[in-house]
Design brief:
379 residues, alpha/beta, 6-stranded mixed sheet, 17 strands, 26% helix
Length: 379
């Protein structure tokens, strides 16, 4: 049942919970608490794009934000990864809202904004939250919540909102080996299974239905790391690469120029053939990520020095590219909002973007002359 809540009635990880001194206390304490992982010295430096002289600048990007000064302040300081320890917490399976034993909803937030929850109604300045059903199923033991409301069928969100948390899970399991992974809803697609198999977790995930609510005896919960904490992304993913044991061959480490294309659907290029011919002249190799396994995608990213891609899930490659690599993101003028600008700066890439004309269903008509000018500026 959907209910309206005032913003101040919701609680947030970094304001409303006592802080644990170390990760061990997440298991030792009998009360709800929050641990801040030691990442205080990672600061994001907002840089200029290499496409600034063409009008695709950082300032232009920030001008689209309703409060750019606040944005710079929030992303410029170190972001933190919080992990909550909750006793007898309840999860509303339909939308993954987590409620404390005192029946208060936890709202994940970014920086100093309490209203960036998905259920925020900006017109009424309230939260529309779904209560758990009246007879939740009880789960005994300690669980780490892996899934998020968008992760059941989306590679982008599964990568940034779930897989990114697993570096925390591995650290917690050193303290408490019996810690189990918890997924709500079906997570049985190929990319779900590939990631879990790659990280040796195929047998460790317990999946429960989206048609019930769950009261968990002890719930460990890291609110979305993802792009809401861009400074931490590189460190989290580098740890997962270590766990995966991926060792690219010397040949695969040869620096490559890659263009991630889309065959159809939202944000596909309507003049793809023309663009591909141009990119071939600049020695960019066209790839479709759906042709590669997760391991194949990771090997591509480790070998990629210069990446051109249309904004979307394919851009997840940049999280695994080496610092100093170059990224050119293609957006369209309906949004004029390249999603990965902040993220690229956070993982120390050279970043630029260009904007094409929105056609239909977010498809893009990209001017080859604009693209050519951007490539000529690409480090």
């Amino acid at each position: 049942m959907i209910e309206t809540w005032d913003l101040e009635d919701a609680i947030t990880p970094d304001i409303d919970f006592p802080f644990a001194k170390n990760a061990f206390d997440l298991f030792a304490n009998s009360y709800d608490c929050c641990y801040i992982w030691p990442e205080f010295f990672c600061h994001l430096k907002v840089k200029e794009t290499f496409t600034a002289t063409l009008g695709f600048s950082t300032d232009n990007y920030l001008s689209k934000h309703p409060n750019p000064n606040s944005l710079i302040k929030s992303i410029g300081k170190a972001s933190h990864t919080y992990t909550l320890s909750l006793h007898n917490a309840t999860i509303t399976a339909q939308n993954h809202t987590v409620w404390t034993s005192e029946f208060l909803p936890i709202v994940s937030r970014r920086a100093d904004h309490k209203n960036l929850h998905y259920e925020y109604d900006s017109v009424k300045n309230v939260l529309n939250l779904m209560r758990p059903d009246g007879n939740p199923k009880h789960l005994s033991g300690s669980y780490y919540l892996l899934s998020d409301r968008w992760t059941e069928g989306n590679l982008y969100h599964w990568t940034y909102d779930s897989i990114s948390r697993l570096s925390i899970f591995f650290e917690l399991r050193k303290i408490y080996p019996d810690l189990k992974l918890l997924c709500i809803n079906d997570h049985n697609l190929v990319f779900h299974q590939e990631w879990l198999r790659l990280l040796g977790l195929s047998q460790d995930v317990l999946t429960y239905s989206s048609h019930a609510s769950y009261c968990v005896e002890h719930l460990l919960y890291t609110p979305r790391i993802g792009l809401t904490s861009p400074v931490n992304m590189g460190s989290h993913f580098s740890k997962l690469l270590e766990v995966s044991g991926i060792q690219p061959s010397p040949l695969s480490l040869i620096s490559k120029n890659l263009f991630i294309n889309r065959r159809a659907g939202p944000r596909a290029l309507v003049n793809s053939g023309e663009i591909c011919c141009l990119l071939k002249e600049y020695h960019f190799h066209q790839v479709y990520l759906e042709d590669y396994s997760i391991t194949g995608k990771l090997l591509l990213s480790l070998s990629c020095k210069r990446l051109i891609a249309i904004g979307g899930s394919g851009m997840f490659l940049l999280s695994f590219m080496k610092p100093g690599s170059s990224i050119l993101e293609i957006a369209h003028d309906k949004s004029d909002c390249p999603a990965h600008l902040i993220h690229s700066f956070a993982v120390q890439h050279n970043y630029g973007y260009c904007v094409g004309r929105h056609v239909l269903n977010e498809q893009i008509q990209l001017d080859p002359l604009i693209l050519k000018a951007c490539i000529n500026l690409m480090p």
